[in-house]
Amino acid sequence: MMMTNQIENQTWDQIIRPKTGWFDLHFRELWNYRDLVLFFVKRDFSAFYKQTVLGPLWYVIQPLFTTIVFTVVFGKVAKIPTDGIPPFLFYLSGIVAWNYFADCLKNTSSTFITNANIFGKVYFPRLTVPLSVALINMIQFFIQFILFLCFYFFFIAKGAPIYPNKWLIIVPLLIIQMAFLGLGIGILVSSLTTKYRDLNFAVGFVVSLWMYASPIVYPVSSVPDRYLFLYMLNPMAPIIDMFRFAFLGNGIVHPGHWMISIMMTVVIFFVGLLLFNRVEKTFSDTI
Questions:
Q1: Residue among 62, 79, 92, 106 nearest 208 (CA)
Q2: Residue 210 burial (CB count, 10 A)
Q3: What are the Cα distances from residue 210, in Å, to 100, 133, 234, 258?
Q4: What is the mean pLDDT of the chain?
Q5: What is the pLDDT of residues 218-231, one digit of tens each?
Q6: What is the phi/psi pair of residue 137, to 5°?
Q7: Ramachandran angles phi, psi of 228, nearest 5°
Q8: How far apart are the C-alpha atoms of 85 and 74, rounded to whole Å?
Q9: Cα gap 286→13, rounded to integer Å
Q10: pLDDT by residue (tens digit) across 248-287?
Q11: At a CB cut-off of 8 Å and minimum separation 6, what does 165 contact?
Q12: What is the torsional sign of CA 206, 100, 117, 44?
């Protein structure tokens, strides 16, 4: 009896209650676990390159060699036009932007499967894991973005036809949109893979195909006008093209296409969030 009274008189700084509906989201709880998010970021950042010789230099080497290969294959051999922009800079700008989105998507798409052991033992907001992945990839993006800026100013100094413009002010919004789009699709796929494991194998393949369906190795101007609207329904197409236009001054900027891309991003993110929230209650029964 005395023990019962002691428990009743205690005050708790956090009470965990079961989630009851699709829209039972607890964003405040996510903020309360911000230290855990930072812990995941530090842990995964150091662990990923812990046994490598070159360490974080791989963040620079990967896009650099990919750009060289694209310049040779698509620029020199296939002779795909780049609308007057130096091919190396054209491909590097597309690769840096695309890598951030693709890595967010791929690295969050296996959240439930790769963290099944820890998820089954202790409670914390599951969304902290994909959120930390997006932040790690943000660090990677900024390292690669500095690489892009180095070559960018080098080509400007050489007198290349590059014309930065007022659209540079929306670049931070484009980066945030890529984060939400990659995170949204990633957690959507992660939720579905708890039941359909085939998706886990298809992600890498689909992302590779998606890259070629986006203006990474060719300019949007090469897309026939009658297919342009359909092409721009790919939410990454306006993002890549506007990112490239802001820095290089070449491309097709249509605010209407970007608005559609933003609406698709918002819808995909919230659908992914709701499904992720729904699946986290029962995933241990299906994995």
A1: 106
A2: 17
A3: 14, 21, 9, 18
A4: 85
A5: 999 889 989 998 99
A6: -65, -25
A7: -65, -45
A8: 14
A9: 32
A10: 987 777 889 999 999 999 999 999 988 888 887 776 666 5
A11: 245, 246, 249
A12: positive
How far from 62 is each of 27, 66, 118, 120, 218, CA to CA, in Å?
Answer: 35, 6, 31, 35, 20
Rg of the Cα atoms in the chain: 22
Question: Under a CB-based contact definition with an 8 Å cutoff, are residues 247 and 160 in contact?
Answer: no
- Separation between Cα atoms, residue 166 and residue 185, nearest integer Å: 30
Q: Which residues fall within 8 angstroms of residue 43, CB to CB, at 6 or more apart?
A: none
User: How far apart are alpha carbons 189 and 194 in whole angstroms?
Assistant: 9
List alpha helices for 49-127, DSSP H: 58-70, 87-108, 111-114, 116-119
Q: Do residues 169 and 147 touch, judged by C-beta distance below 8 A?
A: no
Whole-angstrom Cα distance, residue 104 to residue 275? 18
The token pair that represents 15 in the structure block = 């009470």
CB contact set of 278 (below 8 Å; sequence gap of 6+): 22, 191
> Is 96 within 8 Å of 144 (Cβ atoms)?
yes
Residue 115 DSSP class: T
The answer to whether 162 and 155 are in contact (CB under 8 A) is yes
- Residues 147/132, Cβ–Cβ less than 8 Å: no
What distance, in Å, lies between the first and last C-alpha atoms of the chain?
A: 42
Provide the sign of the torsion angle of the four alpha carbons 272, 278, 281, 285, taken in this order: negative
Angle, alpha carbons 282-285-287 (nearest 5°): 105
